[in-house]
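Lab notebook, bench 4. The sequencing result for the construct came back, and we need a structural model before the next group meeting so we can plan mutations. Quick request posted to the team channel:

Model the 3D structure of this chain.
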Amino acid sequence: MKKILSLVMMAFLALSAYAQVNIPKETPQLEFALQLKVTLGEAYSAGETQHGRRTIIPITGGTFEGPLLKGTIINGGADYQLQNTALNRTELEAIYCIKTDDGVVIHIRNRGVIASGTDAGGRPSFYFKAAPQFEAPADSKYAWLNNALFVCAPSFEEGFKGIVLNVWKIK
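Done. Here's the predicted structure in C-alpha cell form:
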C-alpha cells in the first residue's frame, strides 16, 4: 500500500512540475535579411548510399539583395541532398559563396529539411526550411552575418530556372 501511495504521490508531483512550466512571454522576432535568386544546373545522383539516395544539384550563379547587402552568387557551389523515400524526407546541405557588389566574398553553408506527408488532420503537408550560416571576413562591414542565426524558406517564381530563398535574421 505504501508503494502505491508513493507512486501516486510521485506522479502527482511530476504532473504539478509540468503544469508549472513558464512559457516565455517574448518570442524571438525575425528581421528580413536578404533574398537569394539561385540558378541551378542539371542534377545528378550518386545513387542509393548507405544513408539514402544522394543527389547533387550544381549552383551555377544568381543574384542576392537585402537592406544591407547586394551582389552575385558565385558559380561552383552545390546543393547536396540525401533523400529517404520511406520517410518522405530529404536533408539538404548547400555550400556556396556569394560576392557583394563591393567585392567581398562570403561563404554560405545552408542546412535544411524538406518533408512531405499528412498533418494531424490527414491533409497533405509540405515543409521546406533551412538555416544558412554565413562566414564573412571579420574585418568587413558584413561581419554582422557571423554573429547571428538565420532561417530561410523558398518561394517559387514561374519561369525562373532555380530557387528563390528568402532569409530572415533571428533577432
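The chain has a mean pLDDT of 91.
Will bring this to the meeting.
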